[in-house]
Amino acid sequence: MSHSTKTGVTVLTLLVSLAGMTSAVGQVIGRKYPEGMAPPPVTWKGLVPGRDQLDEAAMGRIGQTVQPLDWYSARKHEFKAPGHPDITDNVLTRGDTVVGTIEAVTPITGCETLDAVRAKLGEPEHVTILSKQRILDYASKGFRFIANNADGKIVGTACFPPRRHVPAGEPKVCDLSKQRQGPLPPARDAKPWKGLKVGFATVPLGLDAETIETLKKADKDKKVLDPLQARCCYISYQGQSVALIGADIFGMLRADLLGVFKKLADEGHPNVVVCMSHTHAAPDTIGIYGFFPNKYNRSVKRALYQCVVDAAKAARPAAQVKVVSAELPLDGARVARISRNVRNPGLVNPQLAVVTFHDADDKLLGTIVHYACHPEILDSKTHKLFSADFVTPLRNHVDQVLGGTTVFLNGALGGMVTSDSPGRRPVDLEVTGLALAKYVVQYAKKAQPTPGHGLRFVRRPVQVFPTNLKLKTFTALKGGGKLLVDGRVPFEMYYVRVGSAEFFTAPGELFPEIGFDIQARMTGYPRMVVGLANDELGYIVPGYDFNDKNYEESMSVGAAIGPMIRQVAYELAAQGAR
To answer: How many domains does the chain have?
Structure first.
């Protein structure tokens, strides 16, 4: 193991141990209702999160009794929502049965419309305006509401212990209303691409019995539930090429991947983006939990190299690139059965983007799927299983129905955007994976040829000063190694454009707030912000929301990286628009 790898691993290991000593402010489920604060002006079924218990009286007001399932340290109660057979009203409680959060499709009485909410609570502190819906932020009062743009109907209500999210002085509106969602108009006489070649490849990230024996003690008893894979889409056009890899990797540092990138560049493949899914049921390839799996990491790097080589060899002429972007419904203050936000309930990016590649006979060669959600459904400690999580049933279903090879790229999943599955059992992987896969199939069939032809790749080296004092102190003691350059953390960001499809990459777990801001500056269709690309620098938090007592902040480079990534993304988006 190189000195730089040891340093990076030990730094992150220390951060984990210190994170255990921080408060759970970031995880809203652990917060209390502020002492001395007046009760909220409205409540959902009389419940005040952070104060009231979900007891028999509360169940009586809801009109149902349900058996909860565990979700990390919380318990998830799913109540049938009257008039909504496919969506539930969800209440999450702590171990002491105190209500932590509520995410409901049933509205608060008296708050059924946008106008009614404003009459009760005043103007929101912040509004994110999407194509079909808008997110109204009343976080200082403990609420977020989802309203339909067309009729102002409230379709989602999130309740939580109050804590202002967007401070005064920040922009009050993020306007994405002009970003196109839904299929393009049917193309008339779409011209085929000339000289475009596209190849796909799948390589296992080998977890055989011999390799498992080299992992940490807690992993040696685990079995493989489904194969971990790297899948590559290799695109070549007019002397330019790019390899986009979707890999079932928990996370890897850029320092560990540089050797792979150099070898591929020497062989004619200079533009490679490894998009790590961040599945929590894969081996810890960073060493964040105290053990660095040398042998497995070497096999992963060999697999990533081979995946690009195989995809390049498989490249064949492609005549059309088809695209579609869809805004999924946020009914219930989440994308039901797919994603929710456990730090800032109701703040979810519901965009699904799909890019498909076809030969001259319109046969599908492969599909890129982009969506933001932590693959952390499976409780691998309880079930002792390795898995790609919901990504496996997603890919398998799309492969089977559409054909070709499906590559999954995760999005701005920080914040914490996680699954809306009922629990954390193996069966729950299918719930989220298939729910998302059905949307992919539905919209992929409506995809239209991308307006314009072209392939563009822009690389931007960036350095950021680590403002996380834990990181700074430890690296100073250890001399920094190669993790730091002149006292700064180096990383790279990329802008990729294929026809009208835009990809922007971030080196970690970007919060959705920053993702929204970046999307608003992009000009393509679809607009995709890809997370954990060629690096895993932890959570990338908006500067205005950074609080070093939070869990996510303790696992971050610091307060500077969020604003810096947003600014560089703005510059890349402007460059891409020219």
So the answer is: 2
